[in-house]
Amino acid sequence: MSFQRKVNRLSRELYRDARLYFLTLCCLDGRQVFTDAPIVESLLQTLKLCCQNHGFKNYVYCFMPDHLHLLVQGEEKSDPLKMVKEFKQLTGYYFKKNTGGRLWQKSYHDHILRKEEDAESVVRYILENPVRKALVDQTEDYPFSGSLEFGKEIFKM
Prior knowledge:
Oligomer: single chain
Radius of gyration: 16 Å
CATH superfamily: Transposase IS200-like
Distance between the termini: 53 Å
CATH class: Alpha Beta
C-alpha cells in the first residue's frame, strides 16, 4: 500500500490572472520566530523582492509570531505558487544558515478571492489579527504589519 499525499491546491490554471490571493504561511511546529525586528525586516525585504520578481503587488502583510498573512494581487501571468516557493526557499535557506533550524512548515494556506468577496474585509482581518491575539490595542501599533504597496496608509483604509 502506497501513501499518497493529500493535494491541497486547486488546479494550476486557477492560479493565473490578476487575482487577489490571501495566503498564510506557518512556522514549523508553531515556533515564535517573528518577534525580532531584524528577522522580520530581512523577511520583508525578501518578500518585496519575490513580489517584484513574480509581478505581485502586496496589499497587506502581517508577521504574527508564528505565521505570516499576506494579501497579494498578481498580474495576468503571475503565479503565486512560484512566488511563495521562491520566498519560502530563500527565507528558509537563510534561516537555516543562521540558526541551523527549519523555518517553515510544509505547504501553506491559500484562498483566491472571488469577485463578490470584499477585499477590505480581508485587509481588516489581517491587520486586526494582532489585536485579536492581544499583542497590541490598536492595529497601527503592531510593528510587523503594513503594506508594500500603500505603506502605513493601509491603516487608514
